[in-house]
Specification:
Distance between the termini: 85 Å
Shape: elongated
Radius of gyration: 26 Å
Largest sheet: 5 strands, mixed
Helix content: 10-25%
Length: 151
């Protein structure tokens, strides 16, 4: 009776010697979440105030901070941005807002959100998200897009 633990236990090993090493391809992860991208196609300067223009943000030193924030966010997906509390998604357009939903945006089809802390705790950029695209709609340096109800 031969034992598999005997002196010839490694004799079958030779058939793998011609195998090429380090040829294994990386496994693709199904359902990878795409990185955030930004669009300004629906940017609204009609509601200024309560919003602001790029020129106003430039005068106040906020425009470069906003650009820096966009660079940082474009290296993250929506899940990471939410986990790091850089973006808050509200869903529907907020009822307690000094802004009005632009008529050209179908509110039922979008998730309204803000980019938080753009050069200060109050400064925000409001817009909506579809898939991985954040559509910038309002510059909101005074936190008037989603106002907190008085306690």
């Amino acid at each position: 009776m031969s034992s598999r633990f005997g002196p010839k236990k490694f004799s079958s090993r030779g058939k793998y010697e011609d195998r090429v090493q380090n040829t294994r391809s990386e496994k693709k992860v199904a359902g990878e979440i795409p990185l955030l991208v930004f669009s300004f196609k629906d940017f609204d300067t009609v509601q200024c105030p309560p919003g602001q223009t790029f020129e106003q943000w430039e005068k106040e030193g906020l425009l470069s901070k906003f650009a820096t924030k966009l660079v940082d966010l474009s290296q993250k997906n929506i899940v990471k941005a939410q986990q790091q509390e850089l973006i808050t998604i509200y869903g529907k357009f907020p009822e307690n807002s000094d802004f009005k939903c632009p008529k050209y945006i179908q509110d039922d089809d979008v998730q309204w959100a803000v980019i938080k802390d753009v050069g200060g705790q109050l400064h925000r950029v409001a817009g909506y998200i579809i898939n991985n695209v954040f559509y910038v709609v309002f510059l909101d340096k005074d936190h008037k897009f989603y106002k907190m109800k008085d306690k």
